[in-house]
Write a structure and sequence with these properties.
By secondary structure, the protein is mainly α. The protein has helices at 3-42, 45-79, 81-115, 122-151, 172-176, 179-213, 221-258, 260-266, 302-308, 318-329, 353-380, 390-398, 401-416, 449-480, and strands spanning 156-159, 166-169, 278-283, 295-299, 421-423, 437-438. The chain has a two-stranded antiparallel ribbon. Strands 3-4 form a two-stranded antiparallel ribbon. Helix 1 packs across helix 6 and helix 7 crosses helix 8. It starts with a helix and ends in a 41-residue tail after the last helix.
């Protein structure tokens, strides 16, 4: 393996691992904020216990997400310094705002939420959680705006005054309002709610079954905690699935305009068709990346509708697009030292067909699985029923992973589908004004394969340890369920003060047994 391939594996592994935590942080944060709001408004005990329990899971994931996210920054300087120089003028402003505005907002107010139980007024305490959650959403937008610029560069011109090409930003607002970013952000947020909804359904059903088999009363508050969790998770998952389909359709139409080769590869559409059919299952030479003699089971007309909102428009095929790209951007890499071993070699503009084709279907399929489980959960808990089916409950618990897999598959499809470009050319501007950058020229010059292997193995081991820690903590607290500390509105406040309404300040005699993080471990 050459340096480029190892560096891509490293970035892919660490990025996908980090991205598994991002949707849960966003989606579960929003739901915990709603639970806390309902407790403040109604005063009902089940909402307080739900806030405490799901808040613990949210905090565990948030902390591990921050730890894995920090490593991402080091990779730019280590293996992708040429890329960093090219995009620095654009990413510098966007990522600076993400850190200074969004990350500081979420981390500061999340700390206030953790330590503020019983110490600040309830409504102010609730507002601190909402501020942290909104900070996470804003942070996601800035990150997606930066990534979407790589998919569809806007607001920049190519600057070669220093002798080395770079993208110089001329319109910051265009970067933030990029239509690619708006579509990707809306898709990511509703997909995050599917992740959170699936978690509520799976864990909630498991606890309902456990309580039923133990003969526990359905009149107890804890029964309402798990039943309400299942119902909220089920409705959120179904609504999010519908919105995922709508936002995904918007995103798909933009991709056909901006990156037609990516979307045609996702359908293994080798030759241009009018009307074009949607592929259900393809076989033959996908693995060898040869778009010749690929056979598919298809549904007529659907692909034309997905691409153009009508049932007759032509959709370009992979082979035709490969020729068009070779004519526009060159059949071979430039004979330039910045391209390393790739200099002078033929350029294959077709993404890895097996990855784009099956990644696209895995994304859709896992979303459908999650929606199906949500529908089952709502049906199984209707009118106060308690599901005890081993297959249904444990299947739902296993299906917690489905939206995670779907999110990861969608991310891999998006990123690998734009190869061989790390910054994709924008077809909306004249060819002479296009700003693009090949992945082959983005690797740090002078870095050796051994150095990248060392970082890849080191990061792989570190992330493996963190994965074990996070999974173990989540399983541990999920099995434990609602704890005694979750039943009072001022966790960790001793001296008989645990039944204050949360608006009163702590008394001096509370300090002896004060443990503000009791609800978090």
């Amino acid at each position: 393996m050459d340096v480029l391939e190892i560096a891509r594996w490293q970035f892919g592994i660490t990025t996908v691992y980090h991205f598994l935590m991002v949707p849960l942080t966003i989606g579960l944060g929003l739901l915990v904020a709603v639970m806390h709001t309902m407790w403040v408004r109604t005063g009902k005990a089940e909402w307080l216990r739900m806030t405490r329990f799901w808040g613990r899971i949210y905090l565990i994931n948030f902390v591990l997400g921050v730890a894995t996210g920090l490593v991402q920054e080091f990779q730019f300087g280590l293996a992708w310094s040429s890329y960093s120089r090219f995009v620095g003028d654009v990413f510098g402003s966007v990522l600076a705002l993400e850190a200074l505005l969004a990350f500081f907002l979420e981390s500061t107010f999340l700390g206030l939420w953790i330590f503020g139980w019983g110490r600040i007024p309830k409504k102010l305490h609730l507002a601190s959680l909402w501020a942290a959650v909104v900070g996470s959403v804003i942070s996601a937008y800035f990150i997606i705006a930066a990534n979407s610029w790589m998919q569809h560069p806007v607001g920049v011109v190519l600057d070669t005054s220093s002798g080395e090409p770079r993208a110089r930003q001329v319109d910051f607002l265009a970067v933030l309002t990029n239509n690619t970013a708006l579509a990707a952000f809306s898709h990511a947020i509703v997909a995050s709610l599917m992740v959170a909804g699936g978690l509520l359904v799976g864990i909630g059903l498991w606890h309902l079954r456990k309580r039923a088999l133990a003969g526990r009363s359905t009149e107890e508050v804890d029964h309402q905690v798990w039943r309400r969790s299942v119902r909220v998770g089920g409705y959120v998952s179904l609504a999010a699935f519908a919105l995922v389909a709508l936002t995904g359709d918007w995103q798909g139409k933009l991709m056909y305009q901006q990156q037609p080769l990516k979307m045609s590869s996702a359908e293994a559409l080798c030759e241009t068709e009018a009307p074009a059919s949607f592929s259900i299952f393809a076989f033959n030479k996908l693995g060898s990346n040869e778009c010749d003699d690929v056979h598919s089971f298809t549904v007529p007309y659907i692909l034309s509708f997905l691409a153009h909102s009508d049932f007759s428009s032509p959709v370009p095929g992979v082979n035709d697009l490969q020729e068009q790209y070779a004519e526009a951007y060159g059949a071979t890499y430039p004979d330039d030292p910045s391209f390393g071993d790739k200099a002078g070699e033929p350029i294959d503009y077709t993404p890895v067909l097996a990855v784009t084709y099956w990644g696209f279907r895995l994304m859709i399929g896992m979303g459908a699985v999650s929606a199906g489980v949500a529908a089952y959960a709502l049906w199984a808990t209707r009118r106060g029923r308690v599901p005890t089916s081993t297959v249904g409950v444990y299947g739902s618990l296993l299906a917690v992973g489905a939206p995670f897999v779907g999110n990861a598959a969608g991310w891999i499809f998006t990123e690998m589908g734009r190869q061989p470009f790390v910054v994709y050319p924008n077809p909306d501007v004249p060819r002479a004004d296009q700003v693009y950058f090949f992945t082959a020229q983005a690797v740090s010059p002078g870095i050796s394969a051994a150095e990248v292997w060392t970082s890849l193995i080191s990061l792989g081991v570190l992330y493996g340890v963190l994965a074990v820690i996070e999974f173990g903590l989540i399983v541990r607290f999920a099995r434990a369920g609602v704890t005694e500390g979750d039943t009072t509105p001022t966790p960790g406040i001793g001296g008989g003060s645990s039944h204050r309404d949360g608006d009163e300040p702590p008394r001096a005699d509370d300090d002896a047994s004060d443990d503000v993080l009791q609800f978090a471990y």
